[in-house]
Amino acid sequence: xxxxxxxxxxxxxxxxxxxxxxxxxxxxxxxxxxxxxxxxxxxxxxxxxxxxxxxxxxxxxxxxxxxxxxxxxxxxxxxxxxxxxxxxxxxxxxxxxxxxxxxxxxxxxxxxxxxxxxxxxxxxxxxxxxxxxxxxxxxxxxxxxxxxxxxxxxxxxxxxxxxxxxxxxxxxxxxxxxxxxxxxxxxxxxxxxxxxxxxxxxxxxxxxxxxxxxx
Length: 215
Known about the structure:
With 215 residues, this protein is mainly alpha-helical. Helix content is 86%, strand content 0%. It has helices at 2-17, 20-26, 32-36, 38-67, 72-94, 96-121, 125-149, 155-177, 181-209. It is globular.
């Protein structure tokens, strides 16, 4: 928990202390106005926390699954709860139905990943490719859902971000299967940083769409 808290605080403080031009160049998407707005600041913090948890519990699940640890089902349950939490955070803005739909799509994202891991463990390349295609189609569905909800989000940008996340996960699983521990650790860090970026894009888009809710 300490690592998550420090990561979120440092990223958010960096966004608020950096001149706007540099902030946008780095992809944080924050502005001086948002940094002066306590409710927007807290919302971005809460969103970051959830996506850092997404990185953390996904990695825990991969490790547990590949190693055949006894906590695999419990870790998966916690990871799926994270998808519910992400859906819940958008409900005040888009409603319960939309929040539940996002949760459904994200849970499918996790469950397909589990199928890929199982196929990769037994070197079943046909199923790896089959489920990988399904995984990317699911990412497309998540992107379509988001851009229909908020015109401030770019389809091209979100697609690239979610595809990159999938590749980080795939490469991380491959690294662990090959016992490339340093590569696995490096990819885990890259994925966490990338998901912090995604959280910022999503939070900023919502703040921009619903300014009246962040006064």
